């Protein structure tokens, strides 16, 4: 099977399985024609496995180095049809015959080459960005363990670790451990779905057996700037998006409590039955925080479940300087919190937290006999799989636990405070620029900073429909050029009656003030002649 060796020179850090130490190098041999069956658990696969994995590590280390190099491109952009057709030996098509380990190494390199470096200092495109090395190590270990979170039996350390993390998060919110429950889920959209699912079950436990036909016409309320996942959850759960009532917001994107109460009373007069309010702590576009105490008062008055989508803003709870923005969250019945956003944990890492122990399990429990036997010899309280809507569940807790051990709460706090300061810096610089206009004149409430860029020619067009039609095209064109050149990434969107504007967010630990200055210069360079 082996046609001869290819010698590859590998720079090693300390310590690698080969016994190398810092500043030393070793020769590794990869055999041309070697195939996956030659790796462990093949009887003779130990050496080849070590060689193969060390070269994977070398590929990853090279990529990480490039990611943090501010001079490197964020991406080498190609259109979908180009990737489908194949690029320079990188072919996505699957064959019936196995390919060599050598080819797999090339494929791994190319996969990273044509992707986006989301840890690059000038990547501002999403709420989740950055590359935390400790979190990365946690993800590697998680993949190596390759286990499932449904029972203590097969994930003893991870299930207990999840309990420890959830307890920590309850305490930060302001709940007592004895009253709270929770689970890690596959992203904020699913966590929000859990919040609505449990809210409905709490009000109507018969839903589990009899279905929606047994219920009156139930409705829930969300800010008009709330995340679209609330409507999606309503569609999935059979509530229907027509029964999601959007509540008006003020000019900064915060839900108006008086409008919420008005909508609740209107729904009741129509014969509808309100059951849940989903408030937002850190909206996706504006970074707005709904007035949680006022909303909690209304929910208590009308006996409604209060869910808080803090997927984006939850991390601010770790900052003594800024946690006041979420004041009232302790009164919520459920909270979504995504550590993979502001806390910088590698994707994905989201938690749904419920302020009533036992409710998650009562809502979702199916007591599968082949998994959740009650007569096991250990404490089956740690068999958490019956709390979830999934069976198989990925281990998302270890990377967060490892990062928390590495940074401490104070380390997260320092990073988050720095993001807030960067947002203020960016705002102050833009405010002085003639060709930039902020969507909001006041200081940013969160790390979101929304703005327009006006090319000089637009200043000659009177304010109105014609200028807006031209302005609508500017952000997409600037972003497209940035992507083609690989210099930076920032998102844009329209919102309500506002035409396309840029949304800058800070959640990347590699970003510095110089990167902020660069982005401004880059927008002006590309946009000045548009």
Automatic annotation (TrEMBL):
UniProt KW Lyase keyword: yes
GO BP: gamma-aminobutyric acid biosynthetic process
InterPro entries: PyrdxlP-dep_de-COase, PyrdxlP-dep_Trfase, PyrdxlP-dep_Trfase_major, Pyridoxal-P_BS
Highest taxon above the source species: Eukaryota
Annotated positions of the N6-(pyridoxal phosphate)lysine modification: 341
Annotated keywords: Decarboxylase, Lyase, Pyridoxal phosphate
Pfam families named among the record's database cross-references: Pyridoxal_deC (PF00282)
Subunit structure: Homodimer.
Protein's name in the database: Glutamate decarboxylase 1-like
Lineage summary: Eukaryota, Metazoa, Chordata, Craniata, Vertebrata
């Amino acid at each position: 099977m082996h046609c001869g060796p290819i010698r590859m020179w590998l720079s090693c850090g300390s310590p690698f399985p080969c016994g190398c130490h810092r500043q030393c190098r070793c020769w590794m041999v990869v055999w041309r024609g070697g195939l996956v069956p030659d790796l462990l658990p093949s009887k003779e696969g130990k050496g080849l496995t070590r060689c193969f994995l060390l070269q994977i590590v070398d590929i990853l280390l090279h990529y990480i180095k490039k990611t943090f190099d501010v001079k490197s491109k964020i991406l080498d952009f190609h259109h979908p049809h180009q990737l489908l057709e194949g690029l320079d030996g990188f072919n996505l098509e699957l064959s019936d015959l196995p390919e060599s380990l050598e080819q797999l190494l090339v494929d791994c390199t190319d996969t990273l080459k044509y992707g986006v470096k989301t840890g690059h200092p000038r990547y501002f495109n999403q709420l989740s960005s950055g590359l935390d090395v400790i979190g990365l190590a946690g993800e590697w270990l998680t993949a190596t363990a390759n286990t499932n979170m449904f029972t203590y039996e097969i994930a003893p350390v991870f299930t207990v670790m999840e309990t420890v993390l959830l307890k920590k998060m309850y305490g930060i919110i302001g709940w007592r451990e004895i009253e709270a429950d929770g689970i890690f889920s596959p992203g904020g959209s699913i966590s929000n779905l859990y919040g609505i699912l449990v809210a409905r079950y709490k009000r109507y436990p018969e839903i589990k057996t009899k279905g929606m036909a047994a219920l009156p016409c139930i409705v829930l309320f969300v800010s008009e700037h709330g995340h679209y996942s609330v409507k999606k959850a309503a569609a999935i759960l059979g509530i229907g998006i027509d029964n999601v009532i959007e509540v008006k917001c003020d000019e900064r994107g915060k839900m108006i409590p008086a409008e919420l109460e008005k909508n609740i009373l209107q729904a009741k007069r129509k014969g509808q039955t309100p059951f849940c309010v989903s408030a937002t702590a850190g909206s996706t576009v504006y970074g707005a925080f709904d007035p949680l105490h006022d909303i909690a008062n209304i929910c208590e008055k009308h006996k409604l479940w209060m869910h808080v989508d803090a997927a984006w803003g939850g991390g601010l709870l770790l900052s003594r300087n800024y946690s006041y923005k979420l004041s009232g969250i302790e009164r919520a019945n459920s909270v979504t919190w995504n550590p993979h956003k502001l806390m910088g944990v590698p994707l994905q890492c989201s938690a749904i937290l419920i302020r009533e122990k036992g409710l998650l399990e009562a809502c979702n429990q199916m007591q599968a006999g082949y998994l959740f036997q009650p007569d096991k010899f250990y404490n089956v309280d740690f068999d958490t799989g019956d709390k979830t809507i999934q069976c198989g569940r990925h281990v998302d807790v270890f990377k967060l636990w490892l990062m928390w051990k590495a940074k401490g709460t104070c380390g997260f706090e320092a990073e988050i405070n720095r993001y807030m300061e960067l947002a203020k810096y960016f705002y102050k610089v833009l405010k002085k620029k003639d060709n930039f206009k902020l969507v909001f004149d006041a200081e940013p409430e969160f790390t979101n900073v929304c703005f327009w860029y006006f090319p000089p020619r637009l200043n000659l067009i009177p304010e109105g429909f014609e200028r807006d039609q031209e302005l609508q095209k500017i952000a997409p064109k600037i972003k497209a050029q940035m992507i083609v050149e690989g210099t930076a990434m920032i998102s844009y969107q329209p919102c309500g009656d506002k035409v396309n504007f840029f949304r800058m967010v800070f959640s990347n630990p590699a970003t510095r003030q110089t990167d902020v200055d660069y982005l401004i210069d880059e927008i002006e360079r590309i946009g000045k002649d548009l």
